[in-house]
Design a protein that fits this description.
- The complex is a heterodimer of chains A (about 240) and B (about 575).
- With about 240 residues, chain A is α/β, with parallel strands linked by helices.
- Chain A has helices spanning about 40-50, 70-75, 90-100, 110-120, 135-150, 165-180, 195-200, 220-225, 230-244; strands at about 5-10, 15-25, 30-35, 55-60, 65, 75-80, 155-160, 185-190, 205-210, 210-215.
- Chain A has two domains: about 1-75 and about 155-165 and about 185-245, P-loop containing nucleotide triphosphate hydrolases (Rossmann fold, 3-Layer(aba) Sandwich), CATH 3.40.50; about 80-150, no CATH class.
- Chain A contains nine helices and ten strands.
- With about 575 residues, chain B is mainly alpha-helical.
- Chain B has two domains: about 40-260, no CATH class; about 315-555, no CATH class.
- Chain B is about 70% helix and about 0% strand.
- Chain B has helices at about 5-20, 25-35, 40-65, 65-95, 100-105, 110-120, 125-140, 145-170, 180-195, 195-215, 220-230, 240-260, 300-305, 320-330, 330-340, 350-370, 375-395, 415-420, 425-455, 460-485, 500-525, 525-555; strands spanning about 405-410, 410-415.
- Chain B has a two-stranded antiparallel sheet with strand order 1-2.
- In chain B, helix 4 packs antiparallel against helix 6 and helix 4 (about 65-95) runs antiparallel to helix 11.
- Chain B is globular.
- Classes of the chains: A alpha/beta (about 240), B mainly alpha (about 575).
Chain lengths: ~240, ~575
């Protein structure tokens, strides 16, 4: 699904979280959102999910204007916040079942997908346990398995690499994300880990004070940068110097 | 380790201010931050409430010509405040947002207790202000220097008794239904304000009749009784000092008990048993030895998944007839949403059977008190209808966990926002749940009106239509409560923008019009006009729901809010 942001402005009173940003993301890409704390990364993800309301501008998914009432569009994307929204008193399986049904993704074949994903994320032996008896990483994996099983056209993930997942989980997530991008899914995730962003994204989007400072492939960014080995570090250093 | 050090905070604030002042950039950001303060309607509303109470006490005393009724108002106010504060204290002590963070700090539990209690005591002076206002109103009535001298000690003593009772109830009687009682007081208050021109005189008459008894029986009225005996120069009233002293004396022991019981307990759930109960048919051969149970292993979990058993929701449609009707009425998408909102299933038949049983108990109590003490009949009616009324309201406005929210990056976000659930579809489900219960709501209001007719000897032909209208208004009020439920998870009223102000005006306007039209529909003497006004009230509720939906769907606010302090 193509994502098109046109002059999106979002303020929290006098603080501009997103300052008239325009951006086009074609499908089949993994895009990492980078920026200092409070830059507007999470706000951007929330605007795309319809949680935060735009003050000005518009968001288009596949050239169709998006608003909170466009349920058919909303069900084509899935946001996974940094702290997963789960039914804590219900089991892992029950949580996954409810989420799959909400996204109308419980059709034939979904059970095989769930079984495979639970195995990959080491959740199978504990699948009948209530979520409130799990660790933070396991709870996140539960929400992630639900997202992977739903397989929406747009994945919006807030800090998936700071979620407490173990290396096996992270590797599995990366593998699935790459496969999904190959299937024309669009994956947007925010992170503070520059080395992860460098290795795991087709494009990086650097946001600073609600403005997009860079949105390009790493190859192109490297060409423009002086320190070609540490292109993202250099970008951040520049932002820091600009601030001071 | 100190959790609250004013000196340290002062010096830190000073240092931060100095740093901010030294940098134009930081100054700009700080200025922006200052503007982003939330509108706190409570700060404006609370002094008005204190003033309203003082005016009420003054007017009631003036109207009746003696202070007992005014003091009874203060007694009831303290009782309502007590129930509210007990709930408040329980939430502060055991469900505060900061408890999770505090449990990770190297602080002892007595220190956490002191900190949470400090938060509780911050709100304590409000009742003292209310009481001072009330006693000042009484002093104006008496118009004697001695009465003015009595204001401060009486207010302080009433306040101390009320807060000793709060601690006593929290420490020793925490299982009492404080939420139901405070909700009943709230509805009683709203009802009296709405209908004061119609039933105000009768209510005042009733209060006047039972004022001495209320002040005598209710612990929050013992200081009032003492004041009353002082005004009549009756030394016998000094006996009230004994129970007052006993209550005040309980303060320390209640606090000690609360402190002693305040232990951190990690919220660990018992691990789910992996034994498959004999009643569950799995299709897998059980071990030959009946003593060896069948256990859930990965293979079993795999079976549950591959056989799609895990998609099966609780079979709530078999719980009763109402549940079955609801299940048959719901569309497939609504059934999915029902699973989201009521993960453990919908309960309708049993709660209604409970309400009807309680109504039968009330009717019996009215009949029996009529035989033994006819003057108490009215109290049996009022208390009984208050309790069953709250039960009916809870049932009529049930939303399950549809509006469950989660703290996420410092903001509270509702679950339905994350899972792409719309305003219309979720509302339709919850409206269907209420609509299905409409006949029972009407049955309740009609029975209640029949009981009122029985006790007050008013004509049944007059009260039955009123009962029917009340039932209709209760059902229609679901549109309004739904709007408030959605609104509670958004920042629609906390932003200072033209849209927010317009929305607040629209919401308040529709709400007030509903109350006015509903009240007029019940009491306007012209029958035709009364039914027309009643129908307009129903239409107003529906319109309110539609207008808010317009704002909601067009993204005039965020589906997230700042956590409540």
């Amino acid at each position: 699904m193509k994502i098109d942001l046109r002059g999106v402005l979002k303020s929290y009173r006098s603080v501009r979280a997103l300052d008239r940003i325009s951006l086009q993301i074609v499908p089949g890409q993994i895009v990492s959102l980078l920026g200092p704390n409070g830059a507007g990364k999470t706000t951007l993800l929330r605007c795309l999910a319809g949680i935060a309301a735009l003050d000005q501008g518009a968001i288009y998914f596949d050239d169709e204007e998006f608003n909170r009432d466009r349920m058919e569009l909303r069900r084509r994307l899935h946001i996974l916040p940094d702290f997963p929204f789960l039914f804590w008193d219900q089991s892992i399986l029950r949580n996954i079942a409810i989420i799959l049904k909400l996204f109308n993704a419980d059709g034939p074949g979904s059970e095989d997908k769930v079984l495979k994903l639970l195995g990959e994320f080491d959740l199978l032996p504990i699948a009948l346990r209530p979520v409130n008896s799990l660790s933070r990483g396991q709870a996140y994996k539960t929400a992630l398995v639900a997202l992977l099983a739903v397989d929406p056209e747009v994945w919006l993930l807030d800090e998936p690499f700071a979620s407490g997942m173990d290396p096996t989980g992270i590797e599995a997530f990366k593998r699935h994300a790459r496969a999904a991008a190959a299937r024309n899914r669009t994956i947007l995730y925010s992170t503070q880990l520059l080395d992860v962003a460098e290795r795991f994204s087709d494009r990086v989007c650097v946001i600073h004070r609600g403005e997009i400072r860079a949105f390009d492939t790493l190859t192109n960014l490297r060409e423009k940068a002086q320190d070609k080995d540490n292109v993202l570090e250099e970008l951040f250093r520049q932002l820091r110097e600009e601030k001071s | 380790m100190k959790l609250h050090s004013p000196r340290f905070e002062r010096s830190l604030r000073r240092a931060v201010k100095k740093t901010v002042r030294s940098s134009p950039e930081l100054r700009r950001e700080a200025r922006a931050g200052r503007k982003s303060r939330q509108i706190r309607s409570g700060a404006l509303f609370r002094p008005l409430l204190s003033l309203g109470l003082a005016v009420l006490v003054g007017n009631v005393t003036k109207e009746k010509g003696h202070p007992a009724t005014g003091l009874a108002v203060l007694t009831l106010w303290c009782l309502a405040w007590l129930t509210f504060r007990v709930q408040n204290l329980l939430v502060i002590l055991y469900a505060s947002n900061d408890l999770q963070a505090l449990s990770m700090l190297p602080v002892t539990m007595p220190l956490v207790f002191r900190w949470e209690m400090w938060k509780f005591w911050r709100g304590a002076p409000l009742l003292l202000i209310d009481l001072l206002g009330g006693y000042i109103a009484l002093a104006i009535f008496w118009n004697q220097p001695a009465a003015w001298l009595m204001v401060l000690p009486a207010a302080l003593l009433s306040w101390a008794v009320a807060y000793s009772l709060v601690l006593l109830c929290t420490a020793r009687f925490r299982r009492l239904p404080y939420a139901v009682i405070s909700l009943a007081f709230l509805f009683l208050g709203i009802g009296l304000i709405m209908l004061h021109s119609v039933i105000g005189n009768a209510a005042l008459q009733l209060l006047d009749q039972f004022a001495p008894a209320l002040n005598f029986v209710l612990p929050t009225g013992w200081v009032a009784s003492l004041v009353l005996s002082w005004s009549t120069h009756s030394f016998l009233g000094l006996l009230f000092l004994l129970p007052i002293a006993a209550v005040l004396n309980s303060f320390r022991s209640s606090l000690a008990l609360l402190r002693k019981d305040y232990q951190f307990r990690e919220g660990l759930q018992r691990e789910v048993s992996d034994i498959v109960p004999p009643s569950v048919q799995t299709g897998i051969a059980r071990p030959a030895n009946p003593q060896t149970p069948l256990r859930v292993g990965p293979t079993m979990v795999e079976e549950i998944i591959t056989s799609r058993q895990f998609f099966a929701a609780p079979q709530w449609e078999n719980r009763g007839r109402l549940e079955k009707w609801l299940w048959n009425w719901l569309q497939p998408r609504e059934k999915v949403l029902a699973e989201f909102a009521f993960a453990n299933g919908v309960n309708l038949t049993r709660p209604w059977l409970k309400v009807l049983r309680n109504l039968a108990v009330v009717a019996t109590a009215i009949f029996l008190t009529g035989l033994v003490a006819p003057t108490m009949q009215i109290w049996a009616l009022v208390v009984g209808l208050m309790i069953t009324g709250v039960q009916v309201l809870a049932q009529a406005t049930m939303s399950g966990t549809a509006f469950r929210r989660m703290l996420c990056s410092g903001l509270v976000i509702p679950f339905h926002a994350v899972y792409g659930i719309g305003y219309r579809e979720l509302s339709r489900l919850l409206l269907k749940v209420t609509a299905l219960q409409a006949p029972f709501i009407l049955l309740f209001t009609l029975s209640a009106s029949a009981l009122v007719a029985c006790v007050t000897r008013m004509p049944l032909a007059l009260l039955l239509p009123a009962g029917f209208k009340c039932g209709g208004l209760l059902v229609a009020a679901r549109f309004i409560t739904l709007v408030f439920a959605f609104s509670s998870t958004t920042n629609d009223s906390s932003r200072f923008s033209l849209w927010s102000i317009a929305l607040i005006i629209v919401m308040a306007g529709f709400g007030i019009i509903f109350l006015l039209l509903g009240g007029a529909g019940l009491f306007v003497p012209d029958r035709g006009a009364a039914w027309a006004l009643w129908a307009l009230a129903m239409g107003d509720a529906f319109l309110f729901f539609k207008v808010y939906g317009f704002f909601y769907r067009h993204g005039r606010f965020d589906l997230m809010s700042l956590p409540r302090r």
